[in-house]
Amino acid sequence: MRKTLTGLLAGIGFSLACGTSAFAQELTIFWAEWDPANYLQELANLYEAETGVKVTVETTPWSDFQTKAFTEFNAKGSAYDMVVGDSQWIGAASEAGHYVDLTEFFNKHKLAETMAPATVKYYAEYPASSGKYWSIPAEGDAVGWSYRKDWFEDPKEMEAFKAKYGYDLAPPKDWKQLRDIAEFFHRPDEKRYGVAIYTDNSYDALVMGVENAIFSFGGELGDYATYKVDGIINSDKNVAALEAYKELYKFTPPGWAKSFFIEDNQAITENLAAMSMNYFAFFPALVNESSNPNAKGTGFFANPAGPGGEQFAALGGQGISVVSYSENQEEAMKFLEWFIKDDTQKKWAELGGYTCNKAVLESAEFQNATPYNKAFYETMFKVKDFWATPEYAELLIQMNQRVYPYITGDQGTAKEVLDSLAGDWNATFKKYNRVQ
Amino acid sequence: MAAVRTSGEVALNRVAIAAVIVITLVFLAPIYWIASTAFKPRNLATTIPPTVLFQPEVSPWVKLFTKRSQLRTQPTPEEYEAAPWWERIVFDGGEKVVRDGRGNVQWSAYPDRFMNSLIVAITSTVLAVGMGTFTAYGFSRFKMKGEADLLFFILSTRMLPPVVVAIPMFLMYRMVGLNDTHWGLIILYTAFNLSFSVWLMKGFIDEIPKEYEEAALVDGYTRMQAFFKVVLPEAATGIAATAVFCFITAWNEYAFALIMTNRRAQTAPPFIPSQVGSGLPDWTVIAAGTVLFLLPVAIFTFLLRNHLLRGMSFGAIRK
Amino acid sequence: MATAVMTRLDPQSRAAARGWSDLTIRNLFVIPTILFLIVFNIFPLIYSLGYSFTDFRASTNAPANFVGLQNYRELLNDPFIWSNFAITAKYVIVSVVGQVIVGFGMAMLLNRDIPLKGLLTTLLLLPMMLSMAVVGLFWKLLYDPSFGIINYALGLGTFEWLSNPNMALYAVALTDIWMWSPFVMLLSLAGLSAVPKHLYEAAAIDRAGPLYTFFRITLPLVAPILMIAIIFRTMEAFKTFDLAYILTSQPTTELISIRLYKMAFQEWQTGRSCALAYIVLIMILAITNIYVKYLNKVKER
């Protein structure tokens, strides 16, 4: 017993001793566990070489990223000086005061002009069109598509496809073609399937996938300024889009009911699907021959247009924000000043980061650097995002609850599903006094 | 005991042996598969039919201990030649070793996490079993009002779903500075295992005849001496069995380790699956991490196996 | 409680005079543990009980407003929550019954003259030494219809274990059974080996059938320890989170602790999730209470 008590006291003493020793010359950035975080570490190494300030990028698996970040914020923890946070967090994090207001910094460096407009709108500004900024667009990302170029370019396949559908087999220009090609390559007997899409409903994967359809079909999730959803989320366009997404589910490999970036990349490497939806940030693994035996035969395209010719994609990516409980805010601001320099942004892109800097994105050098950079560039100027209100997670879960059984379990109709969703969302907005 | 064996009984025993062998094989198949994956080249990890014969590789183990990122440009032949053997393995896998600003190789977090796991699991097991033994003795030998209720209270502490206490616990830890410390996790796991430990140990101590202690008391021992010199040795097998269970629980705990700790004190369970993160899972590395992480607990159990079997039959049941 | 001590020794006796009194020893042995558990379990519980009557959200800095029983009322009227409970009940039953049958069956087989019994038993314990998260990850791969080895080994083609809404919960339970049957086996084995051999011999002399022997001799004598195994497994199954969360995300597998996790750590509805946690806790308490009462009855027989 005495041992326990001494231990307890010792433990408390020990941790207190550690807790107070904050190093001014060290900064910690929190991000998810993936390659861009490694690239950021490499970029930060250059900063250390220049200034002597050690910057550590700390990571956690994607599945726990949101939980871990907000648990830390909510406890007003100073473990992280900066966080590269998801675009949807910005409402919750800014309203609760977790993020430092960067409006002044933003205007001083005219970031609204140098960064791609969509990234400023979705990663940095909250509330919508308020002119208040909370983060610096850091890692641009959106949903794009990879496909099996070797299958597409097989003369026999091309001939058969043309005979069946009356047009040439090529990366799809619109969702109708996407569906046709998926159907064409869907051959369960040969263990080959048409298309890999996102279906995981544990966080935002399925919703991102559905958004791809909705936005390209010309639909919206709602009016982000007035919180009106009825007639928008359940519009005819959205009903058609949801039906199109469900149609694609028919052509997915077996067991495709909890798929996200890993499964969708595996669909290409394991010869399962002809086309696969994924974030651009996960494409490097597909051009690497060591991890993808089909690397040479893999191509990429941007999310195709909808029936009305509109073409959009769901936004991923993150902005970098300063945590308001950090004890090193000044140092963090200095780091950001260095980070936004054109040279740094260029270097960031070279290392493999997806810069949001307009000039770098537009350079031929960037667009030719990888097989997918061009598709990325095209996409980043036509992206849309989910709600960024503090209660976004509730909206997300409600959407999952309604949409998932329809897509994977064939329950209800698209119209019914979206009507109920409009009801759910409206009730949520009422609860938080966003609408009367 | 010397039962006369009929031929029917012998046949029955053979059937039982055959069934045991089949069941053991079925139960161990997934583990064999994980263990063999830990030595496979990456491209053979998910083949169908599964690859049984292959040239074992050390690449998963090299990758387990290094921090790596996707290779964007191939290394020059000179760079490749100059690299040590393990770095070449990483290059061959299409990745490069991450270095810090001073050019030092960055190790993966695995060794640190593994050490943290050892510290936390061993200390909390010692505490939980120790306190559990004392308390079980107290309950077993002395009567008190509301004994059943107290025992039920102790049991009920194990019923809380971790998420129930996670938030208040987190805030509380922040306040006293136990966040991200070894002691923070040790205390948590001790609290976690205490109920199990008390319940199991009470079963064991109940079985030790009171006459032993009384004889010792008559011989001039104090109660404390009798406890340490008579009861504890008798309860050794029970203590060993309890320790195995407590160790397994503490060793593998995931949810609190994830929420309560960051880089200083985080244990390995949240780290091993995180190797999935970079776009494509490298099953060989996850398998290597899993196998190495299974070793200490398997060795511990194996060493105590006789106690475990004997201990279980000795304790928790009334004659 | 302090005055209720009833030692078997006379306080004036030589033994008691030599060292600490039994009362002191008892208090020294028991009270620290109770205090420790109160600080680390009851304190957080009181904390969350308070929050369960508010609309507190830990993700914002807005002050918590008292809303009375609103959280409880809304939760108990939410059909999604009720289906979560139904799923959990089904899961607990399937998984615990499966573990008891498999584990007890293995123990019956092992309770014979089997060569290398100690080694085999230890090897069979390996699954429960793995971490839940890792087991989830690898079993997802094992179940994969395209490159999992389960379908390959059983010749099931592209059978969809995890994405078939009607199958997924059983698949999760199957993994749990694989992992925890050895635990039941170990405890049952302990119970079985403690059954006095002469009882079986007597039964054999009476020409009792194997069924009679099993139900009249084996089962009653093993029951108490089996009950302990069942209590702990039921409690753990009720709390199952990582395994089901990693394996599948079907609405038909959304166990109550997954819903709780989402509410608490994704939606950050702290107040409401505390209320849900209380509902869950009361249910587990009730179930365990019934168990423990029954266990005591079994023990008395």
UniProtKB/TrEMBL annotation, chain A:
UniProtKB keywords: Periplasm, Signal, Transport
Annotated compartments: Periplasm
InterPro entries from the UniProt entry: Bact_solute-bd_prot1, SBP
Protein name (record): ABC transporter substrate-binding protein
Family named by the database record: Belongs to the bacterial solute-binding protein 1 family.
GO cellular-component term (any): periplasmic space
Pfam families: SBP_bac_1
Main subcellular location of this protein, as a coarse class: periplasm
Organism, scientific name: Kumtagia ephedrae
Top-level taxon of the source organism: Bacteria
Gene3D superfamilies: Periplasmic binding protein-like II
First and last residue of the signal peptide: 1-24
From TrEMBL, chain B:
Membrane spanning stretches: 12-35, 114-138, 150-171, 183-205, 226-251, 283-304
Protein keywords: Cell membrane, Membrane, Transmembrane, Transmembrane helix, Transport
Entry GO CC: plasma membrane
Subcellular location as annotated: Cell membrane
Major localization listed first in the record, in broad terms: membrane
Topology of the protein relative to the lipid bilayer: Multi-pass membrane protein
Residues annotated as domain ABC transmembrane type-1: 114-304
GO BP annotation list: transmembrane transport
One of the Pfam families matching this protein, by short name: BPD_transp_1
Highest rank taxon of the organism: Bacteria
Family the entry assigns: Belongs to the binding-protein-dependent transport system permease family.
Name listed for the protein in its UniProt record: Sugar ABC transporter permease
Species assigned in the record: Kumtagia ephedrae
From TrEMBL, chain C:
Alphabetically ordered keywords of this record: Cell membrane, Membrane, Transmembrane, Transmembrane helix, Transport
A Gene Ontology BP annotation from the UniProt entry: transmembrane transport
CDD domains, per database record: TM_PBP2 (cd06261)
Transmembrane segments: 28-47, 81-107, 119-139, 167-192, 213-232, 275-292
InterPro entries (alphabetical): MetI-like, MetI-like_sf
Compartments reported by the entry: Cell membrane
Domain ABC transmembrane type-1 stretches: 85-291
Keyword Transferase among record annotations: no
UniProt keyword Acyltransferase present: no
GO CC annotations, alphabetized: plasma membrane
Superkingdom of origin organism: Bacteria
Membrane topology annotation: Multi-pass membrane protein
Location (main, coarse): membrane
Family: Belongs to the binding-protein-dependent transport system permease family.
Name this protein carries in UniProt: ABC transporter permease
